Here is the input.
Amino acid sequence: MQIRAMTPQDFAAFWPIFRDIVAAQETYAFDPQMDEDAARRLWCEAPLETWLAEEDGAVLGSYFLKPNAAGPGGHVGNCGYMVSPAARGKGVARAMCEHSQQRARERGFLALQFNSVVATNEAAVALWQKQGFAIVGRLPRAYRHARHGLVDCLVMYKWLGEDAKLEMPEPVKLIGRKNIEAVVSRQRKRRPQ
Here is the structure.
């Protein structure tokens, strides 16, 4: 497998993969009616760089790298990955994620943040966790999944800086309305009088 910079001409070969993944409405919050030109601008022109994974001339997948925010947040990068259904389970996403982390470091990013990983995409969530990404937030019912209806999205984050062993804080645990009185009561009982 080779990972190389995607050229404008490469997008035509990648387009069927992009179109089908977006149309499935299982992992990406892109307009399923998007045409090829709009998709090319989104995937190839808006990011800092876009990469293509291929083998023997066959497109296996692609990823982009861009800043997650501007100004004071510009040191955190963001990526999007798509793998051909025929290439899934063959290490393509892992290879692209490792490549993207190296490229992010080379471009001066100190962290990567994935803003909206669909929680039902268990293979991706597990892979990102194996790559060192922590789940730092949950967005309840933030994605309208074609088969499962409203499902949660996860915010995932990895520090890439020199002190890469930075401890990630535990995600905030949300307390249901019914349980809040019990939690507050327990805290009051523990206080010395």
In short: Residues 153 and 179 are 23 Å apart (CA to CA). Confidence is low (pLDDT under 50) at residues 174-186. The first helix runs from residue 11 to 24. The beta strands are 2-5, 49-55, 58-67, 76-83, 111-118, 134-145, 149-159.
